[in-house]
Amino acid sequence: MAESRHRTTPRRAAGRLLGLLLTTSLFAAGLVAAGTTAAHAADPLRQVAARQGIHFGSAIANQHLSVPQYRQIAGEQFSAVTAENEMKWESLEGRRGQYNWGPADSIIDFAEQNDQIVRGHTLVWHSQLPSWLNDGSFSGSQLQGIMDDHIEAVAGRYAGDVYAWDVVNEPFNEDGTFRDSIWYRGLGQDYIADALRKAHEVDPNAELYINDYNVAGINSKSDGLYDLAVRLLDEGVPLHGIGIQSHLVSGQVPSSMRQNIQRFADLGLDVAITELDIRMQTPSDASKLRQQADDYTTVVNACLAVPRCIGVTVWGVDDGHSWVPDVFDGQGAALLYDAQYQPKPAWDAVYAALGGTEDPGDPDDPDEPSGPCAVDYTVVNDWGSGFQGSVEITNTGSSAVTDWQLAWDSPGVTVTNGWNGRWSQSGGRTTVSAPSWNPTLQAGQSTTLGFVADKSGSVSPPSEFRLNGTVCS
Ligand code: 9MR
After folding, report:
1. What is the reported pLDDT for 34?
2. Reported pTM
């Protein structure tokens, strides 16, 4: 059933790594949408986020990628993308068993060209279903087969291309009970565990999430999600993360957001802010934009405060291409760029929250470690046959390192998906070269790489970290 995009090589073995080796032509092309604020001339958000060990992503829509400013911002600023609609059931399988992969493939290709990781959105949802499915009056066992086939086809095709799937989207009502969807009606609440198990079987390397809205703070709905997560983990169901969509209203960011992220993390789950936008009554004005900037700061800080919060994705590139005004009458201006592609105060706020204005470090400070480089290698999550790791490199020398390259030995570890650098492996040696958007490590500066790897045979601890050939501490 699962039709791979890459007939000769499984994507997870080579495709993603090859993709990461591509240089980004958009960066080389220069800035079309040059903004007027100082911040826009600064490092892209993806780069400052990488220094904090998180990704910063955006939803993108294929039909807008032909707009040069949209395309450029999408490629330059973000290290992760989510297809706004292209991987939904109605887009992929409008007729039963007949898949239209083109638009979704284009999103994956864009991500590869720009060294971006891809969040798969979404496998099982009540909305944006094709009419053959919505109106089909299928029995429970038929629905089970339909769901399994779809997961097999979609997760199979994009195995190795997506680092995570929103396997089940929006399963809850506001009071924390299960939403009355075709899935719940036909299969009961077990459809959630079944979908996760199926997705894991099809793509064992993907991180599997449940994703929902109005779950940013502690409330009845997030309590329902929390209780479900506890039950699924108790039953050994492959649930790896919680997606907190975060379609928020300016001035109303839930005060319990950090605490809420923390409670899911305490279960051993990753958390991602998957669809952030913060809307206001339009037109905007300076004071509304200031409030919104504060709100974005609060959300980014909530994620940064919890190590298992792996990243933030905004739901769209600019206010001119946002779903908000279409659905909420009189509201909008919810994103980081305005409709003229200019960065807003919220952009500056996110940049600052990500440490973008901080001094990268003073190499003459006696408290700074000495030597050319320091490496912090962490296993974030280990599931036996594989693991997710993070490698923080700090340039502890007194001068900048340009075109940095970090190499280390880790026999038995096969990296299947790596981000924030261009990854390659040969023999037992892993090498990560600077991505085009982050070529230089200034004195005192750190950057964090992330990866997912398979283990085979006897796995040795990583050793001999070298930055451009020089051994690190
Ligand atoms: O942004 C998406 C918009 O273009 C679609 O018309 C809409 C259809 O439901 O879905 C929007 O994205 C939604 C996402 O897939 C799930 N969470 C809520 C998002 C905003 O509605």
Report:
1. 32
2. 0.75
